[in-house]
Amino acid sequence: MGMVMKAKEAADAVYNDIRKRVEEYASQGHLPCIATILVEGDLASAYYAKMKQKAAKQ
Fold it and tell me: Where is 33: in which H helix or E strand?
């Protein structure tokens, strides 16, 4: 039978894995960054990019 997993727990596991990888990359002297492409006049696109930047800072 399958395992029941809550979305929050899955997201936290993914973010923790990414955080660990970024720390390893940064410890080697590389500066991680994020790049976004915005669609002019699309508020949803701007909001999505803003939330991705916020997540990247964490």
Answer: none
